[in-house]
Sequence to fold (416 residues):
Amino acid sequence: MLRVLHTADWHLGHHLHGISRDYEHQQFLDWLLQQLKSQQADVLIVAGDIFDTANPSAVAQTQLYDFLVKARGLCPQLDIVLVGGNHDSAARLDAPAAILNALGVYVVGGLIRNEHGDIDWQRLLVPLKNAQGELVAWCGAMPFLRHVDLPENESEADPLIAGVNALYSDLLAELKLKALNDEALLLTGHCYMVGGNVSELSERKILGGNQHALPANIFPECISYTALGHLHLAQKVGDDQSVRYSGSPIPLSFDEQHYQHQIIQVDIAADKTVTISKLLVPRSVEIIRLPSASSYSDLQSILDQLTHYDFDSSLSRHQQPLLELRIALEKPEPGLRQQIEDCIKGLPVRLLKISTAYSGSEKGLADVVAEQRLEELQPESVFQRCYETKYDKQASVEMLALFNELHETLQGDKEI
Fold:
């Protein structure tokens, strides 16, 4: 049997409205070390977005490399597979690959081509061994695919999807050449699949925007398991139990407060039967949004909820809950923040965000229109608003695809 633990979207170095998440990430990494040991894992797959930005802080990088050293120390036979995501710098991840590979850590930050333009497929083919040291599976470690990685194919209705499909087909062909003894095959991916549930405030659109969602049949039935990253809600793809997003290990926005964060345990038997189970990640810092429903409440109701909320006074500062308040107003309230700060003074909670929505004197709470901060707007939304202002109509799907391609290219340029 081969036991694989699948996780993704760590986003080390993440800040939520100015508050560092280093403590929460360290708690998760310490917990993950315990799981690797107690579950007797043979393989750990991290499917992209290891870091939150292309230029991660020294603390974030230290957390990653400390974890890798400890994981190999606790589980000397453990195979670790890291692939780049859309938030990662492919070049930064690939830079220490030779050293890490020597330690049993396989890193694929991005696709690398030779002087003839041919992809170096061999570095994407990872042998996976069980506890007895027997080769039982091969992993095709596909990283996040950028526009520049895709082969040109203008004859297809959607060249982006056709390009991704062609690359996975080529990778699968190379995998099959390695699996001479009919070993199990696994794939990784950092992408957006058809029907995926998105957290809009923390997931950057990729590959021309989510209108270019990849179909589930891009991963053939001969693949025992496909470990995906990008979406922060743990979920399977369509009806296929073997194609899954592990989700992020901590909530990366207040919209994710009710997510059941987890890692996925995949057991592959000798006959290639796959058993999938989830290991729930304990939440080290509570995320609180008041009111808890997707709505807004008047100021007095919010103040009453704060007064009667059962906060844990024994928590240290970095353990205290992160708070967002969603307040409905009829008109601007100049003393709003002061009233709230007076109410929470002395309470063991960290106020990160006050969201306001205005109803006007003739409307009920159901009719409020929420204010949006610039940091909450997706680049595509800003482009769409500018386009509507100038041309008095919405941008077409084709125009949005071109904008997203340009935006992705600029994001990639920041890594260099």
Q: What stands out?
A: The longest strand covers residues 350-358. Confidence is low (pLDDT under 50) at residues 361-366. The chain has three domains: 2-280, 287-375, 378-413.
